[in-house]
Design a protein that fits this description.
mainly beta, 10-stranded mixed beta sheet, Elongation Factor Tu (Ef-tu), domain 3, 128 residues
Length: 128
């Protein structure tokens, strides 16, 4: 199952960034990513609506986690950055699993093994 983040804002950040970050990120309340640490990788899909007809474009993505006290920042890596993300400014995310640990010991973990959890700036949280 997955953490589904609807209609989230893609923002630019300057200053200190995690290694490999493009400087662009999305923000998710930290409570949704409990048990994960700074630098963990989050694997999923990003969807953006393009053009006047709002055609949906889907792309697999690996995000870099940076945890703060109230919010977690999911950095879009340089290799996954697409200028279409910025043109639209908003995206839907379906985050399936995390890769935890350093270079030597990596562990894959489903974010939500039993049910999908949905959040957005508008709805707060909904569990299906």
């Amino acid at each position: 199952m997955a953490l589904i983040v609807k209609d989230t804002l893609i923002r630019k950040r300057d200053g200190a960034l995690p290694a490999g970050s493009s400087g662009f990120f999305v923000s998710v309340p930290s409570v949704f990513l409990f048990g994960l640490s700074d630098g963990d990788k989050i694997i999923g899909e990003i969807k953006i609506k393009e053009g006047e007809e709002k055609e949906t474009k889907e792309k697999e993505i690996t995000l870099i986690l940076e945890k703060e006290s109230g919010d977690s920042f999911l950095h879009i890596p340089s290799g996954d950055w697409d200028m279409n993300f910025m043109r639209e400014g908003r995206a839907d995310l379906r985050l399936n699993e995390a890769i935890q640990g350093g270079k030597e010991e990596k562990k894959r973990k489903l974010l939500y093994p039993k049910k999908d959890v949905m959040t957005s700036p508008a709805i707060g949280c909904r569990i299906s």
